[in-house]
Amino acid sequence: MLKIGTGASAPPFMVMDVISAANALAASQPPDAPRVLRMEVGQPGTGAPAGAVAAGMAAMGRGDPMGYTEAFGRRSLRERLSAHYADWYGFDLKPDRLAVTLGASGAFPLAFLAAFNPGDRVALASPFYPPYVNILVALGMVPVVIEAGPETRFQPSVAALERLDPRPDGLIVASPCNPAGTMLHPDELAAIAIWCHANGVRLISDEIYHGLHYDSPIATAASHSPSAIVVNSFSKYFSMTGWRIGWLVLPEDLIRPVECLAQNFFISAPHVSQVVAEAAFDCHPELRENVSRYRRSRDHLLQALPAAGFSRLSPSEGAFYLYADISDRSNDSVAFCARMLAETGVAVSSGVDFDRTRGNRFVRFSYCGPEADMAEAAQRLLNWK
Q1: CB of 316 within 8 A of CB of 284?
Q2: 90 SS3 class
Q3: Maximum Cα–Cα distance for the chain, whole Å?
Q4: How far apart are CA 304 and CA 312, in angstroms?
Q5: Among residues 217, 145, 219, 212, which one has the least CA distance to residue 366?
Q6: Is the dihedral of CA 55, 49, 66, 206 positive or negative?
Q7: pLDDT at 11 exceeding the cut of 80
């Protein structure tokens, strides 16, 4: 019998199954049926900024070569990213510490393989973005789940880390986080980064939702720890999901190891996507208007969802998610979401994707779709309750 590799046993990212079910429902409906409203996936309802797309089209129209770049990306893009850290964080970051990647999804395996060995223990707070755990397990690493709740805004803390015995080899944090939309405030992130560096714990900070924050300021782990790895992406704030372009901020000791991995795994990120990403930094007015739309949808849902029976919501400090405790309505969030889709045409994600032990009593609402759709979804749920 032929062997099957350990990576073949990775569990599904179940939100993708919800997308398939919503697509199937939409395809089966008659033309005059109410549209399926999408609140299940974290894909901005806006496309790449117009100026950035124009720059890419112009480059292709000129016949610019769109071949391989350096494994870490075009030098001009890395310099623009360096300026971005000065502008947003007041942090002096050398371009040589930046690696352009195939989105954040391509960045995580590079970071994990460079920072950890098979059998290493990597901590993270639950609820979490499912691919963190699925990639770690596929690479032979051991996730150490810290169950977090509303008392810490579903975020880890130094106190929780101190209780781990033995200490982990690494820690993944996300701020703003998926699925709860909560943040580590700057002093909390600083305390965790300093603790990790002092205790030999490699910190990986997922900062892909930076720019999508509403009431609390953002901070980057790179400014608090020389050993931290930062993962970021053009997918969320820059609204460039399908362009598959992201980046890593690397500590000095991992620059060459990650470069060698990137050369062998990916060669380079798509050239045209790098051109578009560089131009996106000139499009902040358009991007800030996107954030304003998300804020308005968030504010509306924070008022409307409790009236529709979703009264226990996470603090929505950033990203475009609300995490709702539905234990007063169901203890089977998968079935609950399936029934909601079938009866209201509103697609949301079950919490079991994000929390293997408690997710059966949570659902995640994503509000990055068109404002009118978010308002209509809330009205349908109000009538459904």
Answers
A1: no
A2: coil
A3: 62
A4: 12
A5: 212
A6: positive
A7: no
Residue with tokens 């009236």: 307
What distance in Å separates the CA atoms of residue 364 and residue 40, rounded to the nearest whole number? 7
The position carrying tokens 């045409």 is 345
- Reduce the DSSP state of residue 137 to 3 states and report it: helix
Which pLDDT does position 149 carry in this prediction?
Answer: 94
What does DSSP assign to residue 40? S
User: Per-domain residue ranges for the chain?
Assistant: 6-47+285-384, 50-282
Token duo for residue 355: 């929390």
CATH 3.40.640.10 at 6-47+285-384, yes or no: yes
* Cα pseudo-dihedral 273, 211, 179, 296, rounded to 10: -110
- Closest by Cα among 348, 216, 239 to 293: 239
Distances (CA, A) of 11 to 17, 137, 181: 12, 10, 24
d(C-alpha 362, C-alpha 285), whole Å: 35
List of residues 6+ apart from 239 with CB closer than 8 A: 44, 46, 47, 48, 49, 287, 290
Domains 6-47+285-384 and 50-282 agree in fold: yes
Tokens 């062998």 — which residue? 264
Instruction: Give the per-residue pLDDT at 130.
Output: 93
List the 202-206 sheet strands across, edge first. Answer: 98-101, 246-249, 229-233, 202-206, 170-174, 121-126, 142-147
pTM of the model: 0.95
* pLDDT of 119: 98
Q: Counting beta carbons within 10 angstroms of the beta carbon of residue 298, is it exposed (0 to 12), middle (13 to 18) or buried (19 or more)?
A: buried
What whole-number distance in Å separates Cα of residue 92 and Cα of residue 87? 10
For residue 217, is the peptide bond before it cis, meaning its omega torsion is within 30 degrees of 0? no
Coil, helix or strand at residue 125: strand
* Whether the Cβ atoms of residue 230 and residue 248 lie closer than 8 Å to each other: yes
For residue 237, which of 57, 103, 48 has the smallest C-alpha distance? 48
Answer whether 14's CB lies under 8 Å from 350's CB.
Answer: yes
Higher per-residue pLDDT: 46 or 277:
277
**50-282 belongs to CATH 3.90.1070.10:** no
